[in-house]
């Protein structure tokens, strides 16, 4: 049982389906922000404001548009940690939950995963 206070983190994903997929795996205090597609300057500014000074993790799809979005986010958040889905999965929303959980754990976010079972 973990009642210790975890540092606030932010995970940025592409869309609301990605967000709801991750929200099922992560504790409710993890903030999951969406780019709503390829972010323009205004969306990047909004994400920067919403993320504040919290550590940021980028979790975009492993497809051409996901890679383009990751590039834009990497320019905006150069210190962000990168989390990847496997090529061939239909983006974050189409990735099996066990694989998502493993990737989050590999990124050092195991303690943010919800207790299952």
How would you sum up the major sheet? Answer: 4 strands, parallel
Strand content: 5-15%
Shape: globular
* Order of SSEs: EHEHEHEH
Structural class: alpha/beta
Task: Give, in spatial order, the strands making up the sheet with the most strands.
Answer: 2-1-3-4
Helix content: 25-40%
The number of helical elements comes to 4
State the oligomer: single chain
User: What does the average pLDDT come to?
Assistant: 92
Number of strands: 4
Unreliable stretches, pLDDT < 50, 5 or more residues? Answer: none
Distance between the amino and carboxyl termini: 13 Å
Radius of gyration: 13 Å
Structure commentary:
With 117 residues, the chain is α/β, with parallel strands linked by helices. Helices cover 38% and strands 15% of the residues. Strands 2-1-3-4 form a four-stranded parallel beta sheet, sandwiched between helices. α1 (16-23) links the parallel β1 (10-13) and β2 (31-34). The radius of gyration is 13 Å and the shape is globular. The relative contact order is 0.21. The mean pLDDT is 92.
What secondary-structure arrangement, pairings included, does this model have?
Layout lengths: L9 E4 L2 H8 L7 E4 L6 H11 L4 E5 L3 H13 L4 E4 L12 H13 L8
Parallel strand pairs: 1-2, 1-3, 3-4
């Amino acid at each position: 049982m973990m009642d210790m206070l975890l540092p606030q983190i932010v995970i940025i994903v592409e869309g609301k389906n990605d967000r709801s997929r991750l929200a099922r795996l992560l504790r409710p205090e993890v903030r999951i922000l969406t780019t709503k597609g390829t972010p323009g300057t205004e969306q990047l500014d909004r994400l920067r404001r919403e993320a504040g000074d919290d550590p940021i993790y980028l979790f975009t799809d492993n497809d051409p548009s996901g890679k383009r979005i990751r590039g834009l986010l990497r320019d905006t958040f150069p210190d962000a940690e990168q989390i990847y889905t496997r090529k061939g999965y239909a983006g974050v929303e189409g990735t099996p939950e066990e694989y998502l959980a493993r990737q989050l754990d590999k990124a050092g976010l195991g303690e943010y995963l919800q207790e299952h079972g």
